[in-house]
Automatic annotation (TrEMBL):
Highest taxon listed in the record's lineage: Eukaryota
Gene symbol of the encoding locus: GLYCTK
UniProt lineage: Eukaryota, Metazoa, Chordata, Craniata, Vertebrata
Record-level Gene Ontology MF annotations: ATP binding; glycerate kinase activity
Pfam families in UniProt: DUF4147
Reactions this protein catalyses: (R)-glycerate + ATP = (2R)-3-phosphoglycerate + ADP + H(+)
Source organism: Equus caballus
PANTHER family given in the database record: GLYCERATE KINASE
Keyword Ribosomal protein among record annotations: no
Entry keyword annotation includes Iron-sulfur: no
Identification of the protein by name: Glycerate kinase
């Protein structure tokens, strides 16, 4: 990242080991400030990829970064999946769940998204900073109850959730945003199949939704090979 002297490009580093930290928080607040200064004549171009949740931490006061980190770690340790983790993250964030898009209003926003989540749900990838959240406070409470954490919530988290639950405006919309998936497991598999077919192979995509290890699709690939089908069977997995 060697920039020319006096470059208008700013580079922020943070989220070491994919964990939100003070450097990432400083970057997130700088991004929010930039977005809030835009007008209807501006265009905000956003590139989003996996890891964005850790790179864009901006807890809603009075929640602190440390409190949000602790809650996320507790949920993960008790088996919460990426969808559940991001539902909680969005509820406690100024920028996730469409918060970045809201900060940029009335500017137009174009968001180019690299998906690391099976199925490409845009509201889940990086916790959807340019996608309006479809989850409610009740969804958050249900998740916290499921993992036995509701009673142990810090007072600050309870305050933010109660405030959101009583917001007369409800969740904001993102009608000024264009979100586009430009890279994903499904797109990569489709291109791999196309390239294989161009070389004369008979290719098939067994699954675009494999997760974990030893999945049925992998066993099906083995069976194809055992039964005398030498054609390549491209398969890929995405884990969040």
């Amino acid at each position: 990242m060697l920039l020319k002297p006096h470059s208008r490009i700013q580079v922020f580093e943070g989220a070491e080991d994919n964990l939100p930290d003070r450097d990432a928080l400083r970057a997130a607040l700088a991004i929010r400030q930039l977005a809030e200064g835009l007008t209807a004549d501006d265009l905000l171009l956003v590139l989003i990829s996996g890891g964005g949740s850790a790179l864009l931490p901006a807890p809603i006061p009075p929640v602190t970064l440390e409190e949000k980190q602790t809650l996320t770690k507790l949920l993960a340790a008790r088996g919460a999946n990426i969808q559940e983790l991001n539902t909680i993250r969005k509820a406690l964030s100024q920028l996730k769940g469409g918060g970045l898009a809201q900060a940029a209003y009335p500017a137009q926003v174009v968001s180019l998204i690299l998906s690391d989540v099976v199925g490409d749900p845009m509201e889940v990838i990086a916790s959807g900073p340019t996608v309006a959240s479809v989850h409610s406070v009740q969804d958050c409470l249900h998740i916290l109850n499921r993992y036995g954490l509701r009673a142990a919530l810090p007072r600050s988290v309870k305050t933010v959730l109660a405030r959101a639950d009583s917001d007369p405006h409800g969740p904001h919309s993102c009608g000024h945003v264009l979100n586009v998936i430009i890279g994903s497991n499904a797109l990569a598999l489709a291109e791999a199949q196309r390239q294989a077919e161009a070389l004369g192979y008979r290719a098939m995509v067994l699954s675009t939704a494999m997760q974990g290890r030893g999945t049925p699709a992998a066993h099906r690939a083995d069976r194809h090979q055992c039964h005398g089908c030498p054609h390549p069977i491209p398969a890929a997995t995405v884990t969040a």
